[in-house]
Amino acid sequence: LPPAVIAAWQDRVQIVTVEEWRAQPPRVAATLISVGELRRAGPFVRLSIDQVSRHAREPHQAAGGWASGREYTLMLTQSGWVIVDTGGWIT
């Protein structure tokens, strides 16, 4: 994440690396949001945001949770950025 994004959010959420996320117990409730690399082609930019959530579980219960993702295609116009396409998935 860019330093400006980290500075804006670090007092509201815990920012961790993927390695730190994987080291956490799978039965502790948590959500990981990952922002993908921006891909640009001329006036278009594609951005993806993925989310993985784990449910709190007792030791005798199976780990559980869900994942989802969104992808946005934006176009730079004379008025600024506009969203021209979106897509998503969830499990």
Count helical runs: 2
Oligomeric assembly: single chain
How would the global form be characterised?
Answer: elongated
What share of residues is helical?
10-25%
Provide the low-confidence segments as ranges. Answer: none
Got a strand count?
5
| Overall pLDDT confidence | 92
As a whole number of angstroms, the C-alpha radius of gyration is 17 Å
- State the distance separating the first and last CA atoms: 25 Å
Question: Which structural class matches the secondary elements?
Answer: mainly beta
Query: What proportion of the residues form beta strands (DSSP E)?
Result: over 45%
Summarize the structure in words.
- Strands 1, 2, 3, 4 and 5 form a five-stranded antiparallel beta sheet that branches.
- By secondary structure, the chain is mostly beta strands.
- It has two helices and five strands, in the order ααβββββ.
- The chain has helices at residues 3-9, 18-23, and strands at 30-35, 39-41, 44-54, 65-77, 80-90.
- Helices cover 14% and strands 48% of the residues.
